[in-house]
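User: Before I run my own analysis I want an independent prediction to cross-check against. Here's the chain; please return only the C-alpha cells and, at the end, one sentence I can use as a sanity check.
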Amino acid sequence: MFAEILVLALWKDGLPRREAIDDGIEVLRVAPLFGAALKGRLGLIIKVIGWYLGVLWALRGVKVACFNCHSLAVLPLSVLIKWWKACKLVYEPHELETETSPMRGWRRFLARKIERILIPFADAVCLVNRSIADWYRTTYRLRTVWIVKNVPYRDEHELVRKGLLRQTLGLTASDAQVFLYQGGLVHGRGVELLIDAFSGLPHYQHLVFMGFGELEDQIKASAVRQSNIHFMPAVPPELVKEYTVDADVGLSLIENVCLSYYLCLPNKLFEYAACGVPAVVSDFPEMGQFVEEYDCGWKVVPEVQAVRRLIQGMTARELAAKRANTRGHERVFSWQEEEKELMAMYLDLGFDVDGGRYLACQA
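Assistant: C-alpha cells:
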C-alpha cells in the first residue's frame, strides 16, 4: 500500500541521522533546532518546540499522503502537518494517553484539553483494544474507532522447545516448572510482587526474569537469596521466541496504578501465546477476558498471597493441558490475522491497497 514509510524519531549523539531498517522503511532522526541541552520543565517545552520545527524543516519539499501519530506528545505537530501537507492523519496511541501514571495534576488537565481539542482533526483513530477504544469513543464522542492489537507475526515453522532457557539457567531437574517474565524490569509490572510470591514457593517452581530495567539489582539480590529466582539479561529480539517457548508459564501481572494499566492488553500476552506458552495475568478487563476466551492461561488478583496460592496449586497435568490449548489457537495470535483490520482502515481512508504508491510518515 505505502511504497515508502518514513519514521520520524529524536536524534541522539552517536546515532545515524538516516537509517534504512527494511525495504521501503527508513528512520529519520531529527535534532531540535534549538534547546537540546536545556533542562527542567521549561527546557523540555522549548526542546519539544525545537524538535517540532526540526521536523517541519526536514519535511520541506516532501509529499506526504498519510501521517501516523503514535503519541499525544506529537499530536499538535501532526495536526500542523495534516494542514500543511493536505494529507490524511491517523491517531493511534499505544495506550490510554491521558490516564498513565506520569499524567497527574496540571499535566493531566492540559493533556486532556489538548487531546479533546485536536482529536477531531484525525481522519481515523486506531486503538489497541476494545476497552480503550470504548473509553475514547465515549469520552470524545467519536463515531468510529478502529481496533488493531499489537500482535507478533506468526512463524511459518512450528516453534520447538530446544531447552535453551533451561540450559542457560542450569535447570536440569525433570520436575522443574519454569515461570517466565520477559520485558521491562520496571515498577508497576508486578516484579516486586512476583519476587515476594515465589520466595515462599517450592524449590522446583522457578521464576525467571529476562530483560533489563531499573529493578535489575533488586532481582539479582533476590536471586542470590532464593535458589528458585533467576535473572537473565535480555537476548536479541530475533532469539526471544527461542527462549520463551521453553517456559511452562508466562507472567504478565500488571498492577492497577492507573487506568491505562487497568485496561491494557500487553503485547507480551500475544508473544507468550504465539509460543504456545499459557500465561498468568492480572484479573483486569482485557487481560482476564483474553485468557478466558481462549483458555490460554489463568487470571488472578495481583496480590502476593493470591498469586502464590495459584502457582503453588498448579499441577504438571494442568500445565500440559493449558499449553496444548494455547497451541491450538496459534493462528489467532498472529499479525497475519490482525493486519486485515489495519488494511480495512486504510481502504476506508481512500488508499488503494493493491496499486497505490504513497508515502506515510510516522511520529
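Sanity check: The mean pLDDT is 91.
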